[in-house]
Model the fold of this input.
Amino acid sequence: MGNQMTEMLKGTLEGIVLAILARRSGYGYEITAWLRDRGFSDIAEGTIYALLVRIEQRGFVDVEKVPSEKGPPRKVYSLNARGREQLAEFWRTWSVLAERIEQLHDNDNDNQFDQGA
Done:
C-alpha cells in the first residue's frame, strides 16, 4: 500500500474492525490475517492489537479469554450493543463522506472549476 492509502486507512480502521466483529467474534491475529487475506497487507499486527485495546476501553466490545493450544489464553472480542451503535454511526458517516468525495470526483471529471462554475 502506498503512503496515501496507509494514511486514509488509519482514519477508517476502527470502523473496519467493528464491521469485521459484527460478522463474527475474533482475536487479534485472526482479524489481522483476515485483513491481510483481503489485500490489507501492510497492516501490522500491533496496530490491530492497539486498536482492540482502544475499542475495549471505549466499551464497544465484550472480551472473553479463551484457552489457547499455544501459550496464554486468547482475548476474543465480540461486538456488543454499544459497538453496533458505533458501527452504524461509522456507516452513516462513511456514506456521507463517500458521496461528497464522489461529487468532487465527478466535478473534477466535468472540469466545472475550469469553466468558471
Remarks:
- The chain has four helices and two strands.
- Strands lie at 61-66, 74-79.
- The mean pLDDT is 89.
- The longest helix spans residues 81-110.
